[in-house]
Amino acid sequence: MTRKIGYCIAFFLISCMSISAQDSTQVTLMKKLTLDQVVQLAREQSLAAILAKHRFRSSYWSNRSFKANYLPSLNFTSQAMPTVTKAYDKVV
Questions:
Q1: Whole-angstrom distance between the N-terminal and C-terminal Cα of the chain?
Q2: Please, what is the angle between helix 47-68 and helix 35-45, to 10°?
Q3: What 3-state class would DSSP assign to 53?
Q4: DSSP string, 41-91
Q5: The dihedral of CA 39, 41, 42, 44: what is its sign?
Q6: What is the pLDDT of residues 64-88, one digit of tens each?
């Protein structure tokens, strides 16, 4: 009978110690933020904000490649045996 009471007391003390240990670690991980900081974090890290950033980047590079198709370009072609001459032709 006394063993059962001893086990119950030991179990109770161990469980209280583990609960208090969890509480102290949670307190150290908590950080106090102001409302403005919370709103700023939501603007920067929300799923909608991240999605908007990726859409913007995708649209930006799509537009850049579209514009690149209309830039002047220079193409070189050669015969089977390439020969190099120092003559220049003016193309108008």
A1: 110
A2: 40
A3: helix
A4: HHHHHSHHHHHHHHHHHHHHHHHHHHHHTTS--------SS----------
A5: positive
A6: 999 999 998 888 876 666 667 777 7
The whole-angstrom separation of Cα 44 and Cα 53 is: 10
Can you say how many angstroms the Cα of residue 54 is from the centroid of all Cα atoms in its chain? 10
Place of tokens 């603007």: 43
Distances 70 to 4, 26, 62, 65 between C-alpha atoms, Å? 87, 59, 14, 9
- Distances, alpha carbon 42 to alpha carbons 39, 51, 53, 68, in Å: 5, 13, 14, 36
Q: Which two tokens stand for residue 40?
A: 């700023």
Distance between CA atoms of residues 58 and 65, nearest Å: 11
Residue 83 token pair: 């020969």
Q: How many CA atoms lie within 13 A of 49 on its CB side?
A: 8
pTM > 0.70: yes or no: no
